[in-house]
Amino acid sequence: MVDAKDKEPCVLCGQPVEITGFSLTTSDGLQKFCCAGCLSIYQLLNEDNTKPTITPLLTTKK
Prior knowledge:
The protein has 62 residues and is α+β, with helices and mostly antiparallel strands.
């Protein structure tokens, strides 16, 4: 079992990143977020530092 303290912290709020898919590529590299809200706020505050990326939230197998 993995404790929350062992998980990478959200770049914006510091909460543990428990869900994959909320990430953004910036000039500083890949940034990971705990939720869509933190990702969106980061983009608004740092729009000149972000690079366009598409990160799928869910993947389905057929």
